[in-house]
Amino acid sequence: MKKLPLLPHVCQKIGFILFGPFLLLGILYLALDFTIPWLSFHHHTTNLLADMNENLTDELAATGIIISLMLIAFSKEKTEDEAIQFFRLASLQWAVILNYIVLIVCIFVFYGGAFLSVMVYNMFTILLFFVIRFRFILFQHNKAAV
User: Fold this and answer.
1) 3-state secondary structure labels for all residues of the chain
2) Which range marks the domain in which residue 27 is found?
3) pLDDT for 46 beyond 70
């Protein structure tokens, strides 16, 4: 079986370290409307729209969550063999199927602005489902090996 191009194992550790703070930042932004002051800027437009003050806290949180989940998901394990690659592929397939099942249900349950929120969260769910499923399978595999 051809080996998949993966990031070095150290990237996985970096991803786990970054995930917590970016997730906390995202939760604080959504729950408490928390913003980081130095990420604010004034957007001047020349058309009919009024001048706007913007803050990039939510963009930073979303980008950080996606990057950290990608580092976790696509980094090598300490021992990367064909079984691990199979678990990785099976977990990715499972995550995609589950993600679209959840999305189909949400299409019929949420409307308007609530559906837009669902789509924002949907950016993260494939990676999150994959990481959770892959870690669970690895846990079971390592537990059975002991």
Assistant:
1) CCCCCCECHHHHHHHHHHHHHHHHHHHHHHHHCCCCHHHEEEECCCCCCCCEEEECHHHHHHHHHHHHHHHHHCECCCCCCHHHHHHHHHHHHHHHHHHHHHHHHHHHHCCCHHHHHHHHHHHHHHHHHHHHHHHHHHHHHHHHHC
2) 8-76
3) no
